[in-house]
Amino acid sequence: MTDWNADLYLRFADERTRPAADLLARVPLKSVRHAVDIGCGPGNSTELIVRRFPEASVEGVDTSPDMLEKARARLPGVTFRQADVTTFRAEPPADLIFANAVLQWVPDHERLFPQLMESLAPGGVLAVQMPDNLDQPSHRLMREVAAEPEFAEKIGDANAVRATIPSVEDYYDLLQPHARGIDIWRTTYCHVLPDAGAIVEWVRATGLRPFLDPLDEAAKADFLAAYTARIARAYPPLRDGRVLLPFPRLFIVAMR
Predict the structure, then answer these.
(1) How far apart are CA 60 and CA 38, in angstroms?
(2) Do the Cβ atoms of 48 and 18 come closer than 8 Å?
(3) How far out from the chain centre does Cα 251 lie?
(4) Count of C-beta atoms within a 10 Å radius of residue 118
(5) What distance in Å separates the CA atoms of residue 208 and residue 2, rounded to the nearest whole number?
(6) Which helix (H) or strand (E) holds 118?
(7) Helix (H, G, I), strand (E, B) or coil at 93
(8) What is the DSSP code (8-state) at residue 114?
(9) Which of 108, 6, 129, 130 minimizes the C-alpha distance to 64?
(10) Rg (CA), the chain
(11) What pLDDT shows up at residue 12?
């Protein structure tokens, strides 16, 4: 895929930061020496960690040069580096590994989650938040448009773009041998947005990227037009003309 667009991502910064704040609020640590924000993006989640644990050595990790550039400008006192989550190891072991809205893009959680737990110091916490919205119209309609003949050949298997994350029971069973405490919950946020076009702008920064990247500019415009029309039907305006975007998310806090 092309690099992430940090400016587009930050158009909904408050809405995207709220789940990170809710996740951090459930971290049962009074002090932290070393914290790592994996998939730190433009540093909005990292900033929450710095504020909560000002004494900590905080590190941000991401694959996107554009996101890391924005993060360094936002938090010049924090170390940010480009790295792949799939091979990540905390050095030294971390008291907190924070992963907000990133691991849904990473395969093989059966291997990855135990690997992340092993990067924790004794008593350390792995805190994870992942969108759990593949069955929502916003994402189901991406796949429907991608399956249309004019797009399918370039995009490929639309159902393979992002894997379905496991169930809460599967995550509990996966983490239980590695954790002395596990907290799992699911929340649906209801975001009030100006109109259906705002929903499209929201997902263009994230979920739509794998569908748009293989297309040329003309095909991208056609895809967005077809997708926007379906979104407008799926999310009709409320009494004041705005629309409501339900957004389910899965949260996990596991202590080593």
Answers:
(1) 6
(2) no
(3) 11
(4) 12
(5) 12
(6) helix 109-118
(7) coil
(8) H
(9) 6
(10) 19
(11) 63
Residue 246 · residue 188 · CB < 8 Å: yes
At residue 3, the pLDDT reads 45
Beta carbons of 148 and 226 less than 8 angstroms apart: yes
Total residues belonging to the chain: 256
Domain boundaries, the chain: 6-255
Question: In CATH, which superfamily holds the domain spanning 6-255?
Answer: Vaccinia Virus protein VP39 (3.40.50.150)
**CA of 11: how far to CAs of 75, 97, 215, 252, in Å?**
19, 26, 24, 26
Any residues with CB less than 8 A from the CB of 82 and at least 6 apart, and which?
61, 62, 63, 64, 65, 68
Q: From CA 227, how far away is CA 249, in angstroms rounded?
A: 23
Place 2 in a pLDDT band, splitting at 50, 70 and 90. Answer: low
HSE-CB of 67 using CA atoms within 13 angstroms: 29
Query: In this predicted model, what pLDDT tens digit does every residue of 160-169 receive, in sequence order?
Result: 777 788 999 9
CA distance 219 to 225: 10
Per-residue pLDDT of 206-250, as tens digits, reads 889 889 999 999 999 999 999 999 999 999 999 999 999 999 999
| 137: its two tokens | 């119209």
Residues linked to residue 80 through DSSP beta bridges, in sequence order:
60
